[in-house]
């Protein structure tokens, strides 16, 4: 199999072929999604909510994400692996951002990094790209700044919202990002950005006009038991499947049905 490269993202937009991405935080799901042909896997700082037990992505550190990213990168044969730069690991300066990107590239096997912010992060994107590391940008709703944005608020609404979103998209394009995630943006605004930038737009709740779609895998697979955003469609109910398996197994242990002879070792 041929690995997905940044040129695949570019070609897909040119040819109108939709790009698919899921988050992944471990080698087992990464291998499954890779085999299914998902184009890219994002080791998101959404690991904070889905693996590490935090309420937001704010407390997640680089040291938290490095081993998770290594696990994902170790498992893929085709998919493009994107490492998410956590809050506090790139905002201070372009130097800090490049240092963080180097750690991901040297220590994990990721193929690219992602960071939040448009105009405000353009200098960081430019510096990382100039060192030979592909950058996926992320604009619209940016979870690391949810306290400033006032919660999970849709971005790019109204004429000034659309203009601000367009300015962010153009800033990351000019800085050299190979793709841009649009999170929680109305359809019309996402369509306009998609038409006005040359790099592919990846929707997380930004509608059907984007060049690709990305979802948090635990939401998409029905493993998350908390609140699920409106834009998620559940394609499985893993919480039910695993819950039923655990209940059945516990009953089998209680009754003695497990372990049966075929699950035990003989003396000789
Ligand atoms: O961390 C994450 O999962 C993300 C996507 C939802 C865009 O950043
Ligand atoms: Na993220």
UniProtKB/TrEMBL annotation:
Residues reported to bind Mg(2+): 45, 84, 116
Cofactor(s) named in the record: Mg(2+)
Recorded GO CC terms: cytoplasm
UniProt pathway annotation: Cofactor biosynthesis; (R)-pantothenate biosynthesis; (R)-pantoate from 3-methyl-2-oxobutanoate: step 1/2
A Pfam family recorded for this sequence: Pantoate_transf
Record-linked InterPro entries: Pantoate_hydroxy_MeTrfase, Pyrv/PenolPyrv_kinase-like_dom, Pyrv_kinase-like_dom_sf
Record flagged with keyword Magnesium: yes
Catalytic activity, reaction form: (6R)-5,10-methylene-5,6,7,8-tetrahydrofolate + 3-methyl-2-oxobutanoate + H2O = 2-dehydropantoate + (6S)-5,6,7,8-tetrahydrofolate
Broad class of enzyme this protein falls into: transferase
GO function terms (MF aspect): 3-methyl-2-oxobutanoate hydroxymethyltransferase activity; magnesium ion binding
Task performed by this protein: Catalyzes the reversible reaction in which hydroxymethyl group from 5,10-methylenetetrahydrofolate is transferred onto alpha-ketoisovalerate to form ketopantoate.
Protein name: 3-methyl-2-oxobutanoate hydroxymethyltransferase
Organism encoding this protein: Pseudolysinimonas yzui
């Amino acid at each position: 199999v041929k690995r997905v490269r940044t040129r695949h993202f570019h070609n897909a937009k040119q040819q109108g072929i939709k790009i698919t991405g899921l988050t992944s935080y471990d080698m087992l799901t990464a291998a499954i999604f890779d085999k299914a042909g998902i184009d890219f896997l994002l080791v998101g700082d959404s690991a904070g909510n889905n693996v590490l037990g935090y309420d937001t992505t704010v407390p997640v550190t680089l040291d938290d994400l490095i081993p998770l990213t290594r696990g994902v990168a170790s498992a893929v044969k085709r998919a493009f692996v994107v490492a998410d730069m956590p809050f506090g690991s790139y905002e201070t300066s372009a130097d800090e951002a490049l240092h963080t990107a180097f750690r991901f590239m040297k220590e994990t096997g990721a193929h690219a990094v992602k960071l939040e912010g448009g105009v405000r992060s353009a200098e960081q994107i430019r510096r990382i790209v100039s060192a030979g590391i592909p950058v996926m940008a992320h604009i619209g709703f940016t979870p690391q700044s949810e306290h400033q944005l006032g919660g999970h608020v849709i971005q790019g609404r109204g004429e000034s919202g659309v203009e601000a979103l367009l300015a962010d998209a153009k800033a990351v394009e000019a800085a050299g990002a190979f793709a841009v995630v649009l999170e929680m943006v109305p359809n019309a605004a996402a369509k306009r950005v998609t038409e006005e930038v040359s790099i592919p737009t990846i929707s997380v709740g930004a509608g059907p006009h984007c060049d690709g779609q990305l979802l948090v895998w635990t939401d998409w697979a029905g493993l998350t038991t908390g609140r699920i955003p409106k834009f998620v469609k559940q394609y499985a109910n893993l919480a039910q499947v695993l819950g039923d398996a655990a209940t059945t197994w516990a009953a089998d242990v209680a009754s003695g049905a497990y372990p049966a002879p075929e699950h035990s070792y003989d003396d000789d």
